[in-house]
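Fold it.
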Amino acid sequence: MGIMVNLCTLNMLEDDCIMDSVMVICVDTEGHIASEASSGGIALKLPGTSPKLKAIEIAAAYNSLSFGMGYFGSSMEQPKCFAYCSIIPNDYEFKEEELVLLWMAEGFIQQQKEKQMEDVGAEYFRELLSRCFFQPSRTSKFVMHDLINDLAQVVARDTCFRMEDRLKDQDQYKNLKKARHSSYMQQYYECIKNFEIIDKAKHLRTFLPFGLKYRSGYNLASNVPLNLFQELKRLRVLNMSRYLITELPNSVGDLKHLRYLNLSYSHIKELPESLGSLYNLQTLMLRECKKLKKLPLDMGNLIDLRHLDTTGADSVEELPMGIGKLVSLHTLSNFIVTKTNGHRIKELGNLIYLQGKLCLSGLQNVVNPLDARKANLNDKKGLYVLSMEWSANSDDSRDGRVEIEVLDKLQPHKNLKELHIKGYLGT
């Protein structure tokens, strides 16, 4: 008889996280290892190897479908989500929300009846966390154990690769035609030569750089984005965050399949108007883009947009017309109120899925308190932090009585946890 050991125990003997419902490994005293979950009852002879090495050798013995069905039951999406994680570098800390948005962009998560994609993705994440595929880090983020990452690479096969790994192994170049998802570690300066491998992976859907914690920015040759956009027409995920670029080529509008675009912490000054034709775009991340002054005029056409994060992009003075038509929005970090049509507070009325944090700035421009009521903040039960900001300048044109009424009409949902008020003249 063999000893029954679960995979979490085998992989992470030094960790306390133990899971119950996993593929069970049978190890006998002679070193034969078999899985009860495998249909053929395969056994391997692995003499003189450590338990951790045995675990990864076992994983290599089974194809990805068998592994997925053994671990995830009838779910066909969760194995894809797990395999995708093979492009995450070892020891890299990531947020749950970031990973879920990437899964969504790749089409691994479908909206279910009475469930938003974000909620389904969160369920997948928690399931993987409960089975110890992810571990909490010390910074309220998550990491993957090195061996679990190796396991993900086995499941992913040739569909995912980390660029630095392929550059070390020239024999793997022949499989790049099958590659769909890639990542790489950012370098201080990157030129087109760094990405020559891309020429052999024209079917890529994911272009995902990962940066080091202690570096605030990376230099990128100006011809790199143009070349990438010409070669990678099937991209769904494009991340150029932390690159010290000031502009994007207009050809970004040719990436018709793009669903996720991240330019956070870049020096981007202006986005090309062609971005307004990316009708499949779900996520646009512009965090801390300090030099960005305006957004494309036609952004109101992006009806699939679910997340628009401009946190820290303080130079943006006005949102494009038609934000109120983006009824799928879940994230809208800052809504800038003006007195002109299309920018009034009532534009928020139909955005019932807003969640997380929302800042309402320019509230001194609300001249009709009824517009504030039409914002329907009370219906937005997903908001947990709300900031209301009036101008710091208290000129004679402002009426404190109107501001009292406006504040009264902007009643948030009872689920709200934090309310911040700034520049308010009412008493």
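Residues 3-149 form one domain.
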